[in-house]
Amino acid sequence: NPQLFFISDINPFAAQACLKTLKANKVAYGEVLNADFLNCISSRLERFGIDILLFNPPYVVTPSEEIGTSNIAASWAGGVNGREVLDRLIPKLPGIMSNTGTFYVVAIEENNPDNICQMLLEVGFNQAKVISRRKAYNEKLMIIRADMIKQN
Hints:
Blueprint: E1 5-8, H1 12-24, E2 30-33, H2 43-48, E3 50-55, H3 84-89, H4 93-96, E4 97-108, H5 113-122, E5 127-136, E6 139-147
Parallel strand pairs: 1-2, 3-4
Antiparallel strand pairs: 4-6, 5-6
């Protein structure tokens, strides 16, 4: 079975760069959507489930009104605690992840990673933890991994 890759980005320049990357790497089964991920979750994904979801949400703490704008701020504006976009996704994850799905999310210290892990556990993931930390300029970046094991 071939793997199918869906990539979405609200920023049209980022979506175009992803498409070029897929082509340069000869990825035949990939689709790039210039859209908010939460608005492009289809019933097909809900029916079959996502095995691996990599999510790099806008995570910078900003005023809520900057979220989803049509300018470049949409790519980083995370709203209150930098979590408004992520907090909209987390409750939907059990319905879109496969029975053995793994979710990775990029976060920063200001996003309260312990609380993110707790929310992931509360919606049904079996484990959630920070697996990597790195400082990039003034940001303390991290990757959180959550594993889902659903019973049929």
